[in-house]
Amino acid sequence: MVTKLASLGAFFSGVGALSALIISLSQIKKNSKFNEANFWLTLREMFNTSNRVNIHEDLRKGKWIAEVPKNHQYWIKLEDYLGIFEICERMLARRIINKKMFISLYEYRIYNFLANKEIAKRKLILEYSDWFYFYKLLKRIYGKSWIEFYEFLKRNDHIIKESESETTFIQAMSKSNKEKYNKFKESLNLAE
Asked: Is 28 contained in some domain?
């Protein structure tokens, strides 16, 4: 009888522990979803500061398709804007945020940046080494050609450092590198 009671007590203790575990896991899942939702709202707020909204509007209107800003302060604001995407890439890599959700909410902003070809080329070619995580984000969204382009630029870093513009960079390249460069630009939609 004592053995049956002990077994029955152990059984109910096990059921209680299992129930507590299920409730805890359910609560953890709810907290995780709440934290992720909170993050998306915080990220939206980060993009909605006045400087970043101005950058977003300029990119959306295609203000820098054929020219680059002359104002140094504008470049600082643009770099701040792009830096948010680098932070997002780090969080995507660590699976802190969801890739599908990120793409649905923010990919169009990256597309708008790339559509403004002159500033995209300035940042992603002449200053490529400053934007490694942005390149990783581009790879994550658009494919491995972006990292291959980054590696190509890295191999030609000595020429880039001596170049004041894309034109001088191209002029200093070998014929075969010029051909590779032009193929990359066409495939990545960075060509004029």
From this structure: no
Domain count across the chain: 1
Distance CA 90, CA 92 (A): 5
Q: Are 148 and 136 in contact (CB under 8 A)?
A: no
User: Is 17 domain-assigned?
Assistant: no
| Enclosing domain of residue 81 | 33-187
Tell me 69's DSSP state: -
CB–CB of 135/128 below 8 Å?
yes
Q: Between these two residues, 39 and 60, which has the higher pLDDT value?
A: 60
Rounded to two decimals, what is the model's pTM?
0.82
Backbone φ, ψ for residue 57 (5° rounding): -65, -40
* 1 within domain boundaries: no
138 closest CA partner among 126, 152, 122, 150 = 150
Q: How sure is the predictor about 94, in pLDDT bands with cuts at 50, 70 and 90?
A: very high
